[in-house]
Design a protein that fits this description.
single chain; alpha/beta; Rossmann fold; six-stranded mixed beta sheet; globular
Amino acid sequence: MNADAEINGVATVYLMRHGRTAHNVSDRLRGRSDLELDDAGRAQAEALGALFAEVNLSRVLASPLKRAVHTAEPVARAVGLRVEPVEGLNDRDYSEWTGVERSEVIDRYGSIESAPGVESWEALSARVTQAFDDLVAESVGATIAIVGHDASNRALLATLAPDLASNPEDIPQSTGCWNCLQRDTGGWTVAVLDATPGDGRYP
């Protein structure tokens, strides 16, 4: 990629999703609940750290929730950096529906979006995109890593690359996945989507 020569600052962002938690297994809305990774999630985090050990990252940033920070830690440790929590990268706020099974909310209201008190896609997208723009603007170095959540990642990906899907909820984001966003003078493109360690794709 020639973007480093064409623009100043960050040209590549590796956007990751945190590793698995017990609520992922039961498909409960995680939201702002501060869940720990389960054994599989910790293994996914370590696999990301091993995969990115040779990548020249200048910063490793994460949602302040434990599942994101603990996923980011092996990545940061592998490249000699510390994890920087960023409030704007927090998960979607599901209000009173946090911890409730997704299917139960959909059965009752027709969609997650329609449930009272849930942070709208518009508000989520605006918040996460602003945080992303601020981080890119203030970062020194060509490449950074960000660890977020399924909803926050989808909102950002849909904003930066609207052709990915007509509905942000249709953008795949596996637990412990990584995406590669690349910037040139025309803006951001998604070079890699929903990759996982061991699937043959490399940063």
